[in-house]
Predict the structure.
Amino acid sequence: MKTINHWNPVAEILSVPHSETEYQRMTVLLEELLNTIGDDETHPLANLLETISILIEVYEQAHHPVADSPAHEVLRFLMQEHNLTPNDLPEMGSEQNVLDTLNGKLALNLTQIQNLSKRFHVSPAVFFETEILTTST
């Protein structure tokens, strides 16, 4: 019964979005979480970040299919669309970091995801991959 009593206050946050308005609200929440958590994958809100990103992904799979691609392929596509080279992405670190990410050898961290989503005006969820969201217990 505790779950039922506590569900109403969190239902809006922890429910799959069913409209573009709900989706936009969740992406704002995701960005706020990214700003709060930063690069700390062990932050107490990291699990909430993971949950919100999965809920957003469910919506995007139905309404924005680009989210189905691995993060490095999304990044490669966005770079091609904007005629960018690895040197044009200082927010990711060195040119070698960008190349390793594009080749799938290096996962994006939370700060990089935040910076890339702002730069390309896309939801941070398109860059999430499960291996960067898992936290050790």
Q: What stands out?
A: The radius of gyration is 16 Å. The first helix runs from residue 2 to 11. The chain has one domain: 17-133. Confidence is low (pLDDT under 50) at residues 130-137.
